Amino acid sequence: MNPEGLRCKRALFDRLTAQAGPGLPLAGVQVAYAWPGGTAQREMVYGGGVRFTRTSAGHSGTGELWLETATIGLYIRVRTPGATVEETDARVQEIAGAVEDLLAADPELADGFTYSQMSGGTADYATDDEASVSVLAYQVACQYYLD
Question: Which top-rank group of organisms is this from (predicted)?
């Protein structure tokens, strides 16, 4: 039995990527499975690490059934030249609202994975002479069964 947290992360980011096209809720926002490095755009959603827990959920016909919960790092980052932190924070909040609405409206991800909640997060910012950057770091919980 292997942990499935990374497959759950892939399903989560496939869902978000599918909503980043023209006319869709994340239009104009770069969505990436991991930090894209030198190709990072001004507005982006990208994935971080994965933690998981496993608890017994009884027995199936073939053995013990396990409920695994993956906690996936999801980062929303906005960098805007000439903006204030309040402005970049506001834009991060708009993107976060779109992400939460998408997942709440249809929590079933691919391959039997189910989004369950935003289980926590942090927000921070940075500034330099050119731009303000705001980052919201979410912890996205996803559940699935293993046997």
Answer: Bacteria
Kindly report the CATH number assigned to the domain that includes residue 131: 3.30.2000
How many whole angstroms separate alpha carbon 30 and alpha carbon 42?
8
Residues 6+ apart with CB under 8 A from 83: 131, 132
Give the tokens for residue 38.
């030198």
Total-model pTM? 0.90
Token readout for 96 is 């976060």
Residue 137: its pLDDT value, please? Answer: 97
Instruction: Please give the residue range of the domain that contains residue 102.
Output: 5-146
Ramachandran region of residue 23, left (φ > 0), alpha (ψ -120 to 50) or beta?
A: left
Who wins on pLDDT, 3 or 121?
121
Task: Give residues with Cβ within 8 angstroms of 47, minimum separation 6.
Answer: 9, 12, 13, 32, 33, 34, 72, 73, 74, 75
> Given this model, what pLDDT does residue 123 score?
96
Q: Which residue intervals of the chain are DSSP H helices?
A: 5-18, 85-105
Number of domains within the chain: 1
